[in-house]
Amino acid sequence: MQLFYSSSIGDALLTLEEDDHFHCTRTLRSKPGDEIFVTDGNGKIYRSRIIEIRRNDTRCMILDENLHPKPSFALAIAITPTKNPARLEWFVEKAVEVGISEIILYTSQRTEKKSVNEQRIKKIMLSAMKQSGNIYLPKLSILVDYPQLIQAITPKYSQIFIAHCEEKSVMLAQLHDQQKDAIVLIGPEGDFTTEEIQFALEKGAMPVSLGPSRLRTETAGLMSLMMLHYASSQK
What we know:
Blueprint: E1 3-5, E2 8-9, E3 13-17, H1 18-27, E4 35-39, E5 44-53, E6 57-67, E7 75-79, H2 85-98, E8 102-107, H3 118-132, E9 139-145, H4 146-153, E10 159-163, H5 172-175, E11 182-186, H6 194-202, E12 206-208, H7 217-234
Parallel strand pairs: 1-4, 7-8, 7-11, 8-9, 10-11, 10-12
Antiparallel strand pairs: 2-3, 3-6, 4-5, 5-6
C-alpha cells in the first residue's frame, strides 16, 4: 500500500503538501477521483479521494479512517551525532523502520559534531515511516546536552540503560523487561567519560553490554533497538 503523510487533516478534508504532494501528483501522476491512503503519524490511516490538485498542494476528501493500536510500551534511543552525518542518518532510517518511539540526539563531552540538519532528519523519519508501515512517527529531540538528557529521561522511562565499554556488563536483551518503557544511552565515538557513566548510574541507569565487539555509534544504536525488540518477542 502506497502511504502518504499529512499534518493538515480536518473532519472531512485533508491536504498533501511539499514532498507528498509532488510524489503523489508528479511521480505517481495521481489525478482527481483517485483514492489514496494517508497517515497522520499518530496511528490513523485515512482512505481519501483526491478532489483538487493545486500548484503547491493536493486536497482530498476523507472517506473513512482506521486507528491502529499504539505499541504498549515505549522504546527509545539516545544517541550522539556522528562525525559523518550519513552514519547518523542511516541509524535514524533503520530505527524508524524497525520501530522506535523516540530518538534523542544529545551532546556529551566527547561528541565531535555539535550540529545536525534537523529538517533532513525529519524527512528521513517521514520517509522511513511511510516505507515501513510503522505509522507512529517517533518523537525527535535535538541536541540536548548530557546532564539535561539524564534529568529529562529519569522520570519518563522505567528502564534506563547505558551501553559503554569500561567494564563487562549483562547483555541488554537479558535485562530488558518488555512490560516497561525503556531507553538506551549510546555514547559518542570516543565513548562516555567515567564521570558521565557515574552520573547516569547515580540516577538509576543500568550498565549493559551489546556483545563482545566494539561497535560504531550508529551500529550500537541499532543493535540496542533490535535487542529491545528481541527481548520483548521472547518473553
